[in-house]
Amino acid sequence: MDCEHAELSLWLCSDATIAGLHQEYLGLEGPTNVLSFAQHDGEFGGVEPDLLGDVAVSLDTALRDAAVVGHGLDEEVAFLVVHGVLHLLGFDHEGEQADRAAEMEVKEDTLFRALLDET
To answer: How much helix, strand and coil, in percent to the nearest 5, is found in the chain?
Structure first.
């Protein structure tokens, strides 16, 4: 992904915490599984190019989602981190980039499988 020296912040939080972030930053009610906040966005986005941004993962939602798909919490969190990092790198699956959702899914699957092979 050409970001060998990049840094990011990972916040593992509760549904209540992520619901507050969801409302404050996206104007949407209720919890979600993952939110990404790219450091490269905004007026000072170029100040520190190696900082990708922040990824917040709700452990409550991740636990429920893991039960639905039939795997462990650790795998679900890893998947959500990959998903969040792809958002930080400019990938999207909604809005103006909805037509790139399939491309994001392929990249997501490739990175997730690589991550699992490393553990």
So the answer is: 55, 15, 30
Complete domains list, the chain, with CATH: 9-118 (3.40.390.30)
Q: Are 53 and 88 in contact (CB under 8 A)?
A: yes
What is the distance in angstroms between the CA of the first residue and the CA of the last residue of the chain? 19
Helix (H) or strand (E) holding 101: helix 101-118
Q: Could you read off the pLDDT of 20-64 as tens digits, one per residue? A: 999 999 999 999 999 999 887 767 666 777 788 999 999 999 999
Distance CA 64, CA 51 (A): 30
> Rounded to two decimals, what is the model's pTM?
0.84
In the block, residue with structure tokens 């893991």: 66
Query: Cα separations (Å) of 87 from 4, 13, 49, 72, 104?
Result: 17, 19, 16, 23, 9
User: Which residue shows structure tokens 């039939």?
Assistant: 70
Is the separation of the CB atoms in 109 and 93 below 8 Å?
no
